Every structure is written in structure tokens, then in C-alpha cells.
Structure prediction request, 328 residues.
Amino acid sequence: MYFYLVMWHYLLNKLPVRFYKIADRRKLIGGYYHLIADDTPDYIKNLYQIKKGSEFQRDLSFLKKNYHLISYDNFLTQKFRNQSFILTFDDGFKELITQILPILEQHQIPAIFFITTSLIDNKEWMYKNLLSILIEKVRLTDEATLKSIFKDFLDLKSDSEIRKTVSNFLINITNDTNLPREIAKKMGIDESQLLQTLKPYLAKDEIVALSKHPLITVGAHSTQHFHYKFLDQKEIKEDIITSCKIIQSITNQPKVPFAFPHNSENVSRDLLREIELENPEIKGFFGEFNFEKQDMVIKRFSLDHPQNEVGIVIKREGKNHWYRKLKF
Ligand SMILES: [Zn+2]
Prediction:
């Protein structure tokens, strides 16, 4: 069995991307990035790895050569050929303007920028970004101080790997904006001052300008980037509609696409249908690849990691797709 699996992967890896495109019947697929930067900021460092400008350029050259890169308008009018690809960016970081837009302009590639609405104008940290900053600070803090700061949350008395335990505790905080702020205070980090100094997210006027750019569509990406698997259907519905309405009020776009924060786990097809019927301005749900039966969702895969070159990801995802279908 193991031998066949190894052979299966070996042979499929040898196939050119062209074969994957022929075998994959999906008309439209997508990819997403968060930000592109030569130096990873502290608020990202402990969450995921990102590509540098040169690596992003390489991805775009590959995509241009192998796919029809379509805009949101092409998607709405369904005017696209098979084997189309839609490029998207999540969360709403300032690098969309400073790093990404100039490169998209250079290649004349359209994209959707999905914005988490509570971050607009740097009103607050996305809680995961703040957690990444706290983990950086943990590295520089001595163990006795950590023991005292985290005594209310963790039993560190006989812990031999205090930094690791504290970092694990922090990275596992979910759907909570208050606790990271409370811990930042205990650690002596003025998070609101830091937010105003770094201004990691886009401002409202920048989003207005982007929405008028011929290559860019602005979409919604939830209000606070909470994990939907911990919310009930009513809360999910409210979050999707609220964030789309905020984006529409800022951009005046007739239609607003939506991308799920994390993934579309726990979101039913019926709920999405209901949202679309009741809110005709919401059009197009973008999710993760691992949602095979959900035909309401356009599948996207992550292109953030420097090792995730587009060709490699397409092969990996294609293999997973067939593997699940064949059920070895
Ligand atoms: Zn996101």
C-alpha cells in the first residue's frame, strides 16, 4: 500500500502543470496572499511566513503564462474561459498600496482586496496580529518576569520550557480581542500607541481610492476575523452581512464579494443561499480549498509561504483533490 502511495506521488509530481489543468474540471480557482514584504513585520512573524517582492513577481509570471487571470467583474458577468484564476489578498494591510498594487499595475493583473472591517483606519489590532507581537516580546523577557505576568493564566512553577508554554498559550487564544490587550498591558506594551506608530492597516480614504482603481475590487473579510467554527449560524450570517454593508458604504460598489476568515467550516450552503437572496449586493463567496462539496464557494489556496510557488501548490492541491476522490 505504502509503495503504491509513494509511486502515485512520484508519478504525479513528474507531470507538467498542463496535465493538472486538463484533469481539473474546475472552471475557476483562486489564490490568496496576505502581504508581500522583504522584512516580515513582528505582527506577522509568529503567524505565517510571507513572500518577498521578487518571489511574488515569479508567481505572477507563472500565473500569466498558465491561466486566464480574471477580474471580479468577469466573475460577475461569467465572461471567462475555463482554467481561469482569480487573485485575492486578505485582511487589508498597508502593503496592498505600498508593495502589491505597483506590481499588479506593472503586470496589469486584476485582484480583489478583502478587508477586515474593524481594522479600517487602524482602530484596533486584529487580535492574532497583536498575539504575534506578544510572542516576540516573550522571547526577550526573562523567565521570572514571565512567571509573574502569566501566573493568573498558567501554572509555570515547575515548567522547564516557560517561553514555549507561554507562546503556545498565546497562539491558541481564539476569537478574543480583549485578552491579548489585557496581556499586552501586563507585559508593558502600549498596544494602541504601537498601532498608531506602525499603522499596519489601510485607512478609509485609501480603500475608497483602491475601489476606484480599474484593476481592484474591494471585498469584505468579516468584521473581526473571528473563526466561524466557534460561532453559530445566526452570528455568522450577521458578521457576513455587516462586513459587506460596511464595505459597500465605503466604496459604493454595487456588488461586494466576501472571503471567509480562516475557512468556511461550519457554514452551510443553505445559509449562503439565504444571505445572497436577502442581500443581492453580496455576490461571490471565497473560501479555502478543503470544502469539496460546497459549490457556493470559490476555492482558493494560500500562496503566502515562500515555498508555496504557484506551480507546486497547484500540483499538491490537485493530488489531494484526486486522492480524496479515489479514496485510497
Ligand atoms: Zn484573513
Q: What stands out?
A: The chain has two domains: 2-124+201-326, 127-196. Residues 90-91, 221, 225, 261 surround zinc ion (CB under 6 Å). Residues 100 and 264 are 26 Å apart (CA to CA).
